[in-house]
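Protocol step 4 of 6: record predicted structures for both targets in the notebook before any analysis. Target 1:
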Amino acid sequence: MMVAPRSPGLAVPDAFPPSVAAEEQRMRLAWAKRPQKDPRYSWSNAGHLLNRQERERAALRALARHDFLPLASKSILEVGCGTGGWLRDFVRWGAQPTDITGIDLLPDRVSEAQRLCPPGVRLECGSATQLPWAAEEFDLVLQATTLTAVLDRPVRRQIAGEMRRVLKPGGLILWYDFRFDNPWNRDVQGIGKQEIRELFPGYKVELRRVTLAPPVARWVAARSRLAAAMLASFPFLLTHYLGVLLPPAV
C-alpha cells in the first residue's frame, strides 16, 4: 500500500510494513460499510445532541484544569480527524485555524473536512503510524474514537508512539474513546485504563467516564431530556473515557 500524498518537502516512505497495511485496509473496508449519512448522529437527534453537549463541557473542564484555555496560542493536532468535528470545536474554543492540524486515513473524510473547516486549518490524508511532522511540534494532541477502531495491538502501539513523539514537553494528549467493546460493532475494540497506561508509559492518566450509552440516550432523550440527563449520572451507563494524559516531567 502506498502512502497517501503529503505536504511538499516532507520525506515519504514508499510503503508501510505489512501488518500496518493489512490493518489499514481492514479499516477502510469497515468504514465503507457505514452509511454516508447516519441519522443517529444528526444534530436533530436528541440523544446525539445530549451526548455532544455533555462531551464538550467535559473536554473544556479538562483543558481548563491544566490552564490550556484559551487555546489561542496552542498548536493542535487531531489523529484520525474524520470530517473535522473536533477541529471546528477547537476554533469555537478560541484556537487559531492556522494552528490546527488534522490527519485521517480516508480521502473522502479529509475532503469533507476541507469543505467544512474554516480556511487555514491544515489537513493531511495519511497514516497515523508515520506522522509527517517533527518531534515535539504540538502543544495538544487529540485522539477521539480512533484507537478503538484499530484492532491490531502493535499498530495501536505504533500510533500511540507517534502521538508521544510529536507532543511538546509540557503538552497534553486529549483522549475520548470507548472504554469497553461495542457489542453492536465488531469493528471497534474498547480500551481500558490499564491499556492506556501501557500505550503511554510514564504518563499521568486523568480520565472520567462520559457519554450515556448511545442507544439509551437516543431512546430516552427523544422522550425526556431530563430523564436522559439523570441517567447520565450513573457511571455504569457511560461508555467512554474523556480526559487528558500528561507526559512525564522532563
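Target 2:
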Amino acid sequence: MKFIILALLGTLMLSSCVTGGKMTGLREGLTKDEVIRTVGSPDGYQRTGDYEVLLYIERRTSAWSYFGGSFQDLIDYSVILRDGIVIEYGPGRTHQRDPAGTPFVRVPSSR
C-alpha cells in the first residue's frame, strides 16, 4: 500500500513539471507558429505595428498542495515577436512603452 501511494505521489510531482519544460523549448528566431506548436495557445495577446506579445500564465502546482489544499504558483511568461519572429522571451510581464522604439519591454519576474 505504501508503494502505491509513493508511486502516485511521484507521478503527480513529475506531471506538475511538464508545463515548465515547454518553455525551455523556446529560443530567439522561432516563428509565431513554432512558438504556439511548442508552448500552446497564449493566454493573452498584444500587438503594436510589427510587434506582437504572446502572454502565457504557467500554473505550477506545489507538491505540498496535494496535502494542504489547492495552491498553485502562477508564473507569467512573455514572448515578444517582431514581424512574426521571436526577439525576446522569458518569465515576466510586458509593458507598452514609447512607440518610437521597440513598443514593448519585458519586465522579468523576481522568481
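Step 5 preliminary note on target 2. The chain has one domain: 2-107. The mean pLDDT is 75.
Proceed to step 6 after PI sign-off.
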